[in-house]
Design brief:
It is a single chain. The protein contains ten helices and 13 strands. By secondary structure, it is of the alpha/beta class. The chain has two domains: 6-179 and 222-248 and 288-294, NAD(P)-binding Rossmann-like Domain (Rossmann fold); 192-219 and 250-284 and 300-317, Alpha-Beta Complex (UDP-galactose 4-epimerase, domain 1), CATH 3.90.25. 37% of the residues lie in helices and 17% in strands. The protein has helices at residues 15-26, 58-65, 81-86, 88-108, 149-162, 192-202, 224-235, 253-264, 288-294, 302-317; strands spanning 6-10, 30-35, 49-52, 70-73, 113-119, 169-175, 178-179, 208-212, 218-219, 222-223, 243-245, 251-252, 269-273. Helix 1 (15-26) crosses helix 7, helix 2 crosses helix 4 (88-108) and helix 4 packs parallel to helix 5. Strand 1, helix 1 (15-26) and strand 2 (30-35) form a beta-alpha-beta unit. The strands form four sheets. The protein has a seven-stranded parallel β-sheet, with helices on both faces. A two-stranded parallel ribbon has the order 7-10. Strands 8-13 form a two-stranded parallel sheet. The structure holds nicotinamide-adenine-dinucleotide.
Length: 318
């Protein structure tokens, strides 16, 4: 009998990481989770082992990767546009340190394969100046001009992991706005879908909802359940180039607010905060390459994803 594969998920105390660890356990793997914090909204005992480690040091990355066959590298100091706009030095120092030490530790401990969670934030600003933009395909990454330091670090770390391909296999996804239940919804690190669900849930009907920007900025959103399926399929494929993992359905923030209000059965007036950070004007995922090479695309509609997310966040804020 084949021995059970040992998997490490870094960032397993976070949103996508703990969903992924749960999914990998359900596939029958032995799973170690590592993070600087315990999962806030789920039980760490869902994993075979959970270690509290700061992955900015090589020593801790060596402990994390000891005896491991495959690594899913999700640990990062990150948050929504508010957080990544105002924490440039922390984002760069922490994430470069985490990724450089994870990459090196995988080499020392003879890990066979690593997945790296990159981001749609690597795409150049000049391709994202219109709300009704052309969807971003993987080849658009260069000439590089990411909108913020978080995106520059992600692009650098894609190259960093690729440079270790002589030691282990590397798989890279560029996530486009992943959302869902059991993710951060307050405290300053939350992303737009979670923030909107929280605000709608807390609002009295016929009152106001605050929106960052004019609400005409566009994005695409992918439910975390779809995301982990895509990640697993990519990890187990022969595709060694970065792939978009996201939805290709473009919506304005105003449209998303309307969807959440409809789910909640509330009528709210939008109040626009034009001095708040909004990121690029528009961003969408071109999934052509992903469909072609991986035969994958998200299955769950934005409405269905928002419904489960809204229900979960509503329970939390009550
Ligand atoms: P998250 O913040 O919930 O998870 C990241 C986890 O990394 C956190 O639990 C955090 O505590 C942990 N971490 C931070 N510093 C650490 C350190 N020094 N040592 C160990 N752990 C540390 O974010 P998420 O949404 O689950 O994102 C997971 C990954 O996907 C990240 O790399 C992120 O950049 C990437 N990503 C996410 C999205 C998205 O829409 N959620 C989009 C693009 C890319």
């Amino acid at each position: 009998m084949e021995t059970q594969k040992k998997i490490l998920v870094t960032g397993a105390g976070g949103f996508i990481g703990h969903h992924l660890a749960r999914f990998l356990k359900a596939q029958g793997f032995w799973v170690r989770g590592v993070d600087i914090k315990e999962p806030e909204y789920s039980d760490k005992n869902e994993m075979d082992e959970f270690l509290l480690l700061d992955l900015r040091t090589l020593d801790n990355c060596l402990k994390a990767t000891q005896g491991i066959n495959e690594v899913y590298a999700l640990a990062a100091n990150m948050g929504g546009i508010g957080f990544i706009t105002y924490h440039n030095a922390d984002v760069l120092y922490d994430n470069v340190s985490i990724n450089a030490n994870t990459a090196e530790a995988c080499k020392v401990n003879k890990v066979k394969k690593i997945f790296y969670s990159s981001s749609a934030c690597i795409y150049p600003t000049y391709k994202q100046e219109e709300a009704n933009l052309t969807a971003l395909k993987e080849a658009d990454a260069y000439p590089a001009d990411p909108d913020n330091e978080y995106g520059w670090e992600k692009l650098f770390s894609e190259r960093l992991y690729k440079s270790y391909e002589e030691f282990y296999q590397v798989r890279i996804a560029r996530f486009h706005n992943i959302f869902g239940p059991e993710g951060t919804y307050d405290g300053g690190r939350e992303k737009a879908p979670a923030a909107i669900c929280r605000k709608v849930s807390l609002a009295e009907s016929d009152s106001e909802i605050e929106i960052w920007g004019d609400g005409q900025q566009t994005r695409s959103f992918c439910l975390v359940d779809d995301c982990v399926q895509g990640v697993f399929k990519l990890m187990n494929s022969e595709v060694n180039q970065p792939l978009n993992i996201g939805s290709d359905r473009l919506v304005t923030i105003n449209q998303m607010v309307d969807m959440v209000c409809k789910i909640a059965g509330k009528n709210l007036t939008k109040k626009y905060l034009l001095d708040k950070p909004q990121g690029v004007r528009g961003r969408n995922s071109d999934n052509t390459l992903c469909k072609q090479l991986l035969d994958w695309q998200p299955k769950i509609s934005l409405e269905d994803g928002l419904k489960v997310t809204y229900e979960w966040i509503s329970k939390q804020v009550k």
